[in-house]
Amino acid sequence: MSKPDDAVAVPGGWRSAVRGNVLAMGLVSLFTDFSSEMMNPLLPIFIAALVGGLKAALWVGLTEGIAETTASVLKIFSGRLSDKLGKRKALVVAGYGVSSAARPAMSLAGLVVTALPALQVVVLKFLDRVGKGVRTSPRDALIGDSVGPGVRGLAFSFHRAMDHFGAVLGPLAAIGILYAFLGYSRWGARPTGEAVPAEEVAAMRWLFVVALVPGIAAMVTLLGKVREIAPKAASAEPQLSAWRRLPRRFYAFVGIVAIFALGNSSDMFLLLYAWSRFGMSLVGLVALWIVLHVSKIVFSIPGGVLSDKLGRRPIIVAGWIVYALVYLGMGWSGRAAWEFWALFVVYGFYYGMTEGVEKALVADFVPSEHRGTAFGIYHGAVGLAALPASVLFGVVWTALGEPWGPRVAFTAGAALAGVAAALLIVLLSKTKRT
């Protein structure tokens, strides 16, 4: 496959993939995930405490579905806007700023206004994802513009690895905060169906407040270290015309990714499943989240390097196949907790083979002046599928109950992943190596 010209002359050696803007944006993502992943492993349980365990799956699906869909719509327009303006950094700063303020505010849900506390979480999660929608496409376009095509897979995978490193540090900090408030009294397994104790709810609220600190560190790094790289030319053509200029193979890829995303419900359901089925404590859930992100780190760099050497799509197919097998295992595993832990480790392989590699393939498809638009369409398609994926997962779980609700939902996700992998194999066989 022929590569589009880059916007600026960038070095192609591997060192260029781990310095400059890529390193700076990696640090920004590290601090941001430090903040968000202090909270995310506990957010489903926080919602369960606000609404009761029986309704938790439905509210988690609603929260994640609305939030991710909002982000996805904004990613479409923020990417195109960054192309038209010829600037990326201002949108990135605005997006990270909104998210850094919204996340800690969740500590107040149900306190200042007591009515509809779960809805307050939905609204704040919505604002958090507004920030994500504004920043993501310009950020990815900026990373794509900052490196040569020969190390693009490594650059995006390095960025994801830094993101996941922050997602390890955040839960470790959360364990320290939980210990400070709870000691060892609530660290063991708990009876399934037990209501969330008041002291655990209070500990989670304080933890959400502390999440403001790494958010501030992310903003300082972003403002001081990230350098603007303008696209090749600010496009003056009508928006739809720019969309029509993108290659057909790019749209075929986006369509297949959207099919996969329809079965890719929020990982918050995995934590809720561990809590409801296996009786994991708050600390157990945080530890499970750490294991997942360590696994993501281990596989992210190899996934990017392999994609630079072997092509992008064989690596993505491998990741999707593993995803399907893991989801089947999640739904049909027994009551042994070690099986769930093992599946979480393998689940990190899927992330390592796909997260950075999919973005590198998007950047490969299009020239710099349309790269923000392309990332917006890609992220938009993935995220628009997140609403039905997460909401339907929650509805099926709630309607069928245990154990068939999660079992059917996980199986459906695995089936869609298998269909997407098969379609990408067909596309791979009919196009040049990419």
Characterization of this structure:
This protein is mainly α and 434 residues long. It has a single domain (15-226, 239-430), classed as Growth Hormone, Chain: A (Up-down Bundle), CATH 1.20.1250. It is 77% helix and 0% strand. It has helices spanning 20-39, 43-51, 53-85, 89-105, 117-146, 152-182, 198-210, 212-225, 239-244, 248-262, 268-278, 282-310, 312-332, 337-365, 371-384, 386-400, 404-430. The longest helix is centred in the N-terminal third of the chain and has 33 residues, at 53-85. The radius of gyration is 21 Å and the shape is globular. The protein starts with 19 loop residues before the first helix and ends with a helix. Mean pLDDT is 82; it is low at 1-12.
Helix content: over 70%
Major β-sheet, in short?
none
State the domain count. Answer: 1
Helix and strand pattern: HHHHHHHHHHHHHHHHH
Total strands: 0
Task: Provide the low-confidence segments as ranges.
Answer: 1-12
The CATH architecture would be Up-down Bundle
The level 1 CATH classification is Mainly Alpha
pLDDT averaged residue by residue: 82
Helical stretch count?
17
Question: What is this entry, summarized?
Answer:
This protein is 77% helix and 0% strand. It is mainly α and 434 residues long.
Short key terms for the protein model shown above:
77% helix; mainly alpha; 17 helices; Growth Hormone, Chain: A; disordered N terminus; 434 residues
